[in-house]
């Protein structure tokens, strides 16, 4: 890929992309919290999003829920994030979103490389990183506080689980 295209994509990502990690609650998981990393770009021009998707070689372009005039490029599959997006973004020289990307990258790699052996300590670190990432986006709003998420995480031992509930053995599956 030529330098012009890489520069265009880097500038577009710096200006328009979003790196986010939502923390979803799932009672059937060992620790009841599932980090969900998502890379996205919202635009009214679907051609730009299709171009970016073809350059990055992953993700999907779809209508933005609740805003039919907008389209969104979403990459939320952990394998695509790890194997396609991260190596691609590592080639770019992001300026504005360099710190957001660094945090997002760390979260994605921790999740992808520890899928079946994610410890409470690793998950707690990912939760802290997710809240740190949120601080870089003025529009970011979390439904639950860090304290509340950590309480839910720490209630994930056998004694705290309702009887008869099966527990997933892995975080992502």
Question: What features would you describe in this structure?
Answer:
- By secondary structure, the chain is α+β, with helices and mostly antiparallel strands.
- It has helices spanning 3-16, 46-56, 78-91, 98-113, 120-134, 146-154, and strands at 17-25, 33-43, 60-64, 67-75.
- The chain has one domain (3-160): Endonuclease I-creI.
- It has six helices and four strands.
- It has a four-stranded antiparallel beta sheet.
- A hairpin with a 2-residue loop joins strand 3 (60-64) and strand 4 (67-75).
- Helix 3 (78-91) runs antiparallel to helix 4 (98-113), helix 4 (98-113) packs antiparallel against helix 5 and helix 5 runs antiparallel to helix 6 (146-154).
- It starts with a helix and ends in a 19-residue tail after the last helix.
- The model is unreliable at 158-173 (pLDDT under 50).
Keywords:
alpha+beta, Endonuclease I-creI, 4-stranded antiparallel beta sheet, 6 helices, 4 strands, 46% helix, disordered C terminus
């Amino acid at each position: 890929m030529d330098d012009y295209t890489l520069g265009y994509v880097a500038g577009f990502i710096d200006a328009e992309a979003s790196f986010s990690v939502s923390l979803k609650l799932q009672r059937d998981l060992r620790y009841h919290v599932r980090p969900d990393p998502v890379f996205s770009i919202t635009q009214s021009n679907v051609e730009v999003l299709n171009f970016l998707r073809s350059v990055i070689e992953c993700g999907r372009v779809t209508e933005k829920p609740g805003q039919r005039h907008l389209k969104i490029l979403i990459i939320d599959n952990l394998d695509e994030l790890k194997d396609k997006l991260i190596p691609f973004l590592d080639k770019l020289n992001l300026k504005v979103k360099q710190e957001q990307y660094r945090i997002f990258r760390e979260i994605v790699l921790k999740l992808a490389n520890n899928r079946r052996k994610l410890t409470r300590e690793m998950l707690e670190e990912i939760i802290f990183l997710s809240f740190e990432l949120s601080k870089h986006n003025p529009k970011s709003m979390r439904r639950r506080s860090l304290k509340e998420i950590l309480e839910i995480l720490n209630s994930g031992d056998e004694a705290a689980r309702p009887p008869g509930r099966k527990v997933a053995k892995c975080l992502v599956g």
